[in-house]
């Protein structure tokens, strides 16, 4: 039988983990091929994680080839082909942005170093934990032997939210929506771009033909969807975040669809005026575990302003973590 794909998940006892682990174990990432799960948590959460593993056992998933849990990243990341970094420190009451960045900085410097030391040569690292773009930058900066292209941050949830909103507006099926792009930071400044998206092969902005809807409804609805879900559900999006984490990893490892692209936050090479080295969301195509930024899209003045604003926020975050000595 084939060697299982070794997949690490951090924050495995958390909300997203509770959905993500079962999807992974059921074969949603590997298409049913065997998968081994390596689950990292902080020490006080290990008991809860044991309970989750009991439930995984009880599913008797045919594709689940093994589960290991622990609180030591060097043990859990040993030999992993894919690391999904979900666990992060949420902003607590009275916490300033600097406090949040340093709390997460401690987590992502340590995990970057551990991955650098023990992960498999072909490792890919996807960061879901917030602030995702900057956490990916911190992890990459602390893993000098792993190519920077192997790190990405999750904007696929935003991408999927944008597809869903556009489908609802136009009455199209989600499968008719292509070429969606999220630019910039996974934050309220992100820019979901309808000017390059298509509905049944036609330009989405032209199909919608309502700039007021784009600016006053579509963009804020996508960018603030996380807050709307907290408001309605009493806790943050978890199943949809898990689903997007799998979509992103699946496309990265096994390739994006022909004649379409996906959104991923990856290290900038200077494309579209995004300063080199920032981890920013772009339209990308993926093949055999590599991504490349879609080139040559025309950026009009409206889009330019939105992209620049989100990129400015990423530069601020980078400056802050530089001052804290995290990168
Ligand atoms: P939870 O608070 O339910 O779970 C996080 C888990 O991480 C906890 O069990 C905690 O013990 C663990 N953890 C903390 N530090 C750790 C460390 N050093 N090593 C291993 N585990 C550690 O949060 P959840 O709702 O699961 O969300 C996880 C992260 O995803 C948060 O940062 C959240 O903001 C972020 N999100 C990102 C999204 C995205 O699209 N990029 C959307 C959903 C979500 O908001």
What does this structure look like?
There is one protein chain. The protein has 327 residues and is an alpha/beta fold. The protein has two domains: 5-153, Rossmann fold (3-Layer(aba) Sandwich), CATH 3.40.50.720; 156-317, Alpha-Beta Complex (L-2-Hydroxyisocaproate Dehydrogenase, Chain A, domain 2). 43% of the residues lie in helices and 19% in strands. The strands form four sheets. The chain has a six-stranded parallel β-sheet, sandwiched between helices. Helix 5 (132-141) links the parallel strand 5 (124-127) and strand 6. Helix 4 (97-118) packs across helix 5 and helix 6 packs antiparallel against helix 8 (211-223). It is globular. Bound molecules: ligand NAX. Ligand NAX is lined by residues 10-11, 13-17, 40-42, 45, 86-90, 107, 128-130, 132, 154, 157, 186, 226, 236-238, 241.
Strand and helix map with partners:
Elements (H helix, E strand, L loop, with lengths): L4 E6 L4 H11 L9 E6 L5 H14 L4 E7 L2 H4 L5 E4 L11 H22 L5 E4 L4 H10 L9 E3 L2 H15 L6 E2 L2 E3 L7 E3 L4 E2 L2 E2 H5 L2 H13 L1 H9 L5 H16 L7 E6 L11 E9 L2 E4 L7 H23 L4
Parallel strand pairs: 1-2, 1-4, 2-3, 4-5, 5-6
Antiparallel strand pairs: 7-10, 8-9, 10-11, 12-13, 13-14
The structure holds ligand NAX.
Query: What proportion of the residues form beta strands (DSSP E)?
Result: 15-25%
> Total number of helical segments?
11
User: In total, how many beta strands?
Assistant: 14
Number of domains: 2
CATH architecture of the largest domain: Alpha-Beta Complex
**How big is the Rg?**
19 Å
CATH superfamily of the largest domain: Lactate dehydrogenase/glycoside hydrolase, family 4, C-terminal
Which class do the helix and strand fractions yield?
alpha/beta
State the name of the first-level CATH class of the largest domain. Alpha Beta
Q: What is the terminal separation in angstroms? A: 42 Å
Overall mean pLDDT stands at 97
CATH topology of the largest domain: L-2-Hydroxyisocaproate Dehydrogenase, Chain A, domain 2
Q: Report the major sheet.
A: 6 strands, parallel
